[in-house]
Amino acid sequence: MHDVVIVGAGPVGLFLACELGLAGCSVLVLERAPEPHSPFKAKPLGMRGLSVASVEAFYRRGMLHQLLTASGVHEDPGADPDAHEPSALRGGHFAGMVLDPALVDVAALPYRLPSPAMEVLLTHLESVETLLSEQASRLGVDIRHGVTVSAIAQNKECAVARAGEDEYAARWVVGCDGGRSAVRGLAGFEFVGTEPQLTGYSMHVTMAGAEELRSGINLTPTGMYLQPSEGHIGMMDFDGGAFDRSQQPTRDHLQEVLRRVSGTDVTLSEVHLASSFTDRAMQTTTYRRGRALLAGDAAHIHSPLGGQGLNTGIGDAMNLGWKLAATVHGYAPDGLLDTYTRERHPIGAAVLDWTRAQVAAMRPDPHGQAIQAVVRDLIGTRDGTTYMFERLSGASIRYDLGSEHPLVGRSAPDLRLENGTRLGDLMRDGRGVALDFSTDQCLRDSAMGWESRMRYAAGPARNDLGLGAVLVRPDGVVAWAGDRTPDREAFERAAGHWFGGPEI
Ligand SMILES: Cc1cc2nc3c(=O)[nH]c(=O)nc-3n(C[C@H](O)[C@H](O)[C@H](O)COP(=O)(O)OP(=O)(O)OC[C@H]3O[C@@H](n4cnc5c(N)ncnc54)[C@H](O)[C@@H]3O)c2cc1C
């Protein structure tokens, strides 16, 4: 009997496995694929963009350097410990309309501090999964390949995942088994949303006439195409999602679609690899049913426009990991696990709407063109670009934790003590962190009551942003913020609320 069985060793399942392993849970990961490697996860089709929130998650667990190296990035932004400025902003796009980062009103972005986590990191699934599975194994997680879960049963005490004749019992089961999740259906989750308007393709090809294709993202009178790197083509065809994903796209089909959406005569001489997707946008109505939970694509699917699926899934795993571990170990305050759905479901819903809005704007008809004109006007303004940037980068994410303090519910800035210690470094062991900048270190005695669940660090800060103290949850979210003379009782209430009763 394990504490947790995770179904699916994709990036989200593996990230969650690391979180649970770090917190001392016994974890079994069951993965259908007989082996981890797949050409769809390597360059070029496996390329994925990680947002600052995801890069931060790796940083906070001490995996940033390995992630950068595995992604081919050799200048580590964290190498400069005296950096005074946050890393440069990257613009991104909305429905192919590119943002100008110079137009972002930096003063309007709350609490930005220098951090080793960069704004956007281009990586590929293979690197991410290799790094995470090595880390999970080091933390004692058992990962088994070639096991397809086909049934789930649960009662008050445990959940059982079945694969053929084999049964795997655990106190909790988490479906991280992707967009076509088996766990979702087997555990009775309701999955609701909207049907597709388009079929998208990602392909690695050799072509004749490639010079006719423009670089960047191209909205055309018949669809959209982009060429992120030589021979790597993405395209969207507004066919109502008619192309059936279960069939392999042939060279003739791909060539016909590319010629139509690009308006060129390009010839595909060879198709090395191709996959298709749609913009079906669906989400489960809850992320927990009894002892079964969902995270990542298993809980929400949408088009890859804006590259948010993996980032949302990593956010799910960070949010769920410590809450599930506290529940397993028996010190979770009442209702802690249910805050997972309460906090993450609205984030997933907002991502679905963001992709729906982009699809509406990209429609190759007068309606789409009218929306594009409005969006172009808006992103020509400072406020419009700042709004888009906050949505794209995840800076707008703020959980409603019942506090009016503008920092509470947001990802904590990478606060640093005068002695050079960074918040991110203090989070490596997966505990929460209390940072006390008050001159008399007035929270020290209180924090000792939660020592096994929370680290305490005190001293003057290089930039305390006007704060006297902050309490940061293990997922990096600010749970409480105190002013220059922190209120000890308020701190203790917040600590008890998130970490349960004090140990002493
Ligand atoms: C073209 C394209 C580009 C994208 N670009 C980006 C991007 O730039 N940024 C971004 O954030 N997101 C992007 N995404 C989305 C991102 O790839 C996904 O959201 C992410 O991979 C989901 O991870 P996951 O772990 O939830 O699911 P998956 O990666 O699908 O992993 C699920 C795992 O579960 C296993 N499994 C399935 N069923 C079973 C079963 N019954 N038993 C056991 N195991 C099972 C599968 O074999 C698989 O290994 C893109 C997607 C596409 C298609």
Automatic annotation (TrEMBL):
Xref: InterPro entries: FAD-bd, FAD/NAD-bd_sf, RIFMO-like
Name under which the protein is recorded: FAD-dependent monooxygenase
Names of the cofactor(s): FAD
MF GO annotations: monooxygenase activity
Superkingdom: Bacteria
Residue ranges annotated for the FAD-binding domain, each copy included: 3-355
One Pfam family recorded for the sequence: Rng_hyd_C
This protein's record includes keyword Transmembrane helix: no
Iron-sulfur in keyword set: no
Keywords, ordered alphabetically: FAD, Flavoprotein, Monooxygenase, Oxidoreductase
Biological source species: Streptomyces decoyicus
